[in-house]
Write a structure and sequence with these properties.
Mean pLDDT: 91
Shape: globular
Structural class: alpha+beta
Order of helices and strands: EHEHEEE
Largest sheet: 5 strands, mixed
Length: 73
């Protein structure tokens, strides 16, 4: 499992972090709802679950993806 929370330069850090996840491993992101679409675009070899609401937050969600391939795109 690789986790990210409150990351600056999300668009460059996410692909690098995704490459660290082993096939069948998971990537857990604490992000804003606005970042969900971009996470899906930046980590194409992940099967993403639905966003999980974070208690007492109107915009933060937990997004968990499972690595589906052996090679990073």
């Amino acid at each position: 499992v690789v986790t990210l929370r409150a990351v600056e330069r999300f668009e460059s850090v996410l692909p690098t972090s995704a490459r660290l996840v082993a096939p069948g491993g998971r990537l857990a992101l604490l992000v804003s709802q606005a970042q969900i679409r971009r996470a899906h675009e930046l980590a194409l070899d992940f099967a993403w679950g639905g966003p999980i609401s974070v208690p007492q937050s109107s915009i933060r969600v937990l997004l968990i993806g499972k690595r589906t391939s052996e090679e990073s795109r």
